[in-house]
Amino acid sequence: MKLAGVLLLITAVAFSARAEQARFDNYRVYELSIVTMEQLEVLQYLENYPDGYIFWESPVQTNMELSLVVPPHKYADFAAFTAKLGMTPRLKIKNFQEVIDNERPNKNRRDGFGWTDYYSVAEIYAWLDSMVAQYPSILTKKVYGQSYEGRDLVAVELSHKTGNPGIFIEAHIHAREWISSATATWLLNELLTSTNSAVVDLAQNYDWYFIMVSNPDGLEFTRSDNRMWRKTRQPSSILCFGTDGNRNFDYYWRNGGSSTNACSDTYSGPTAFSEPETEKMAEYYGTIASRINVQFSFHSYGQYLLTPYGFTGAPAPDNNADLQQIAQITAAAIRETHGTVYTYGNSAQVLYVTSGSTNDYFMGVHGTKLAFTFEFRDTGSSGFALPANQIIPNAQETLNGLIAFVAEAKALGYM
User: Fold this and answer.
1) If residue 378 lies in a helix (H) or strand (E), which one and from where to where?
2) 121-411: CATH class
3) Does domain 22-101 have CATH number 3.40.350.10?
4) pLDDT band at 19 (very low <50, low <70, confident <90, very high)
5) Which residues are annotated as catalytic?
């Protein structure tokens, strides 16, 4: 078959594959601890040639834990290779499809936009438009670019008066992390409507910049095709799609914790800023960077509060002691809300190495003094498919954490 015929066949297969949502019946989720270099190398090979396995964390170093989704036809192979490597898998989820089925109990009985379900890009944008129309004097919408598939890239800016310190929040750069945009929209709604004095103070005396959906193409793909999709959707090779947006920023790009394999979930892209979603976000941030005192990235899962830098051999920022003090105060406030325990610290030390991330870029290139990543609920019982009935509790504890964060940052002279 000639090359043109092969390409047409691949295209036909790709489009036909989008006709049906992937299912994960009887897929098991195991937790593994990577101790030796041999274990790491085998898992890295497996990530590059997965044959049905799905990695929830990328194997980037020894002395880390990851969760691996194992399809039914791989049970025996998985048991054999982990035994040979001296690994002891810990079963976390027996049937992952049941977790996905329980994620959205209200999907067939919704009444307008709210926080008891997860929403599409169009629904989120429609809600944002309605809020801008309702609060035109303080809320502004910015379309800062288009995604690879032509969707708007949207930011909203909330400001009661000039001269306020700025807080920037970007969410949903990883497509499967639905709780990130759900929490961001809830926070904006609280800033607009709450009568709680602490929240009113945050709304009136700080400017807020939100990107609710940094990766709209990826979010839509998780809804239509594969709930576990992570990356963008720009083709990266004949057979592979997408780049990890949080490995694609041009600061110590591809310097550890990312992959050069186009099929990997942590593929860093052919070049830094190869994706319109990351390039346009960076351009937008450049227009507001001088007004930003704090930058937050919203992710899931694991219950972490992480500080820069994440790249290999990462030096601590000059204000690392302040970062850890603020993180400690924030984690305590989160725990006081619903008892949720967050681990905090430098991302390369308490989680794993990353490079080309938003936090590192905004701090390293633009000098933003406070840059943090939230990894929201849970610790693995649902993973990325967090039940919608946890959206509001997760958002409530996040808001209380932000109240404590801003108070401590102000006391330390950052606001």
Assistant:
1) none
2) alpha beta
3) no
4) low
5) 375
